[in-house]
Prior knowledge:
The chain has 11 helices and 13 strands. The protein has helices spanning about 15, 45-55, 135-145, 170-185, 190-205, 215-220, 265-280, 300-325, 330-345, 350-360, 390-400, and strands at about 60-70, 85, 85-100, 105-110, 115-120, 150-160, 225-230, 235-240, 250-255, 365-370, 380-385, 410, 420.
Amino acid sequence: MRAEPGGVPEEGGPEVFGGPGVFGGPGVFGGPGVFGGPEAGGGPEAGAVRLFGERFGGPPEGVWRAPGRVNFIGEHTDYNEGFALPFAIGTGVCVAAAAREDGVVALSSRQYGESVVTVSPGVLAPGALGGWAAYPAGVAWALRSAGHRVGGASLAVDADLPAGAGLSSSAALECATGLALAGLYRLAVSRPELAALGRRAENDFVGVPTGLMDQLAVLLGQAGHALLLDCRTGTGTPVPLDPAAAGLALLVIDTRARHELTDGGYAARRRACEDAARALGVRSLRDVTSVGELDRLGDPVLHRRARHVVSENRRVLEVAGLLRGGQLGLAGPLLTASHASLRDDFEVSWPEADAAVDAALQAGALGARMTGGGFGGSVIALAPAATAAGVTRAVTDIFGRRGWRAPVIGPVQPAQGAVRLR
Ligand code: GLA
């Protein structure tokens, strides 16, 4: 099963980006709908509407769009009730939808074969289906389980966000679906509640034990800001993040190594954190505030895993303080320290990510780190705007020398969260 089904599957990758390693300048990851130029016929909004007409007949009642996210810092902290600092990006997933009277949830995706998957009301339960359709069907199930009166719906999906790139196409799909169902059935459901239900769909319907960061970033993101998430309370506070205004560029490097959160590594890390918290007698690793307290952990692996989480929480709060003080440029070393901790202590980085980070730093980046759950996906690099082209070249060169597929690299800016488009 794909870990990030909302977006464009790898097979479609190069065309979507306009060719491996080719970028259309500023706004490639960050600009609304721009991702190597709109696809033929006007991008995912038009694509979802067209697919809706082809599969279900007539126009949809509405179209909703949810973006992907980049996590600036704070990795594997969310399910430890800690802190994270993600932001929404300019590319995402569009859902064109209409209510149905037969109670059936019918789903079709431009990226996943365009056939229609139908789920009758009686069988909408965990285990009923797998693959990409489990994510939107899981949201309908989660809403119904929470007591919301959601009837049937036809949904057509199109995306300009790559799947498996660590940019949360799964949360984008869940949140666009959640907003669509809430809109169609006029549900009184707040965005934080919708985020929690998206996570519930992913945890209990799809079966991946992820935290709440992605859904909160996708639903609460604001242009020009990252969100300081407190994952104990489930709240997010906007913090200014405007690299261009600081003379900097924030690059996203899709290493094209694909991750699958369903492979087991993610769940194993989560279990290790829970084991460490239990051994320390705390509710979660959030409650450990200094690395010294971890000396009581006898198991060296648990010690390393917990050290990552405890140190990462501190880095998030430090970076948030720098952003609030208008000192984005000083965040670089903390980003790089986060990567080292994910590589050495948490052991979720991968060879392409380590090489990209090293090459970016050597070419003048102020800091760089993997972003997302790990085991594949993307890296971010913060660089003076004048060195961004050199960083891009250096990373592309090392991938070429190692015989890896060309990375896809482009600047990103924090963008608005999910919206109803029409
Ligand atoms: C994935 C999960 C998130 C979070 C990150 C790691 O993106 O969906 O909940 O745990 O990994 O920070």
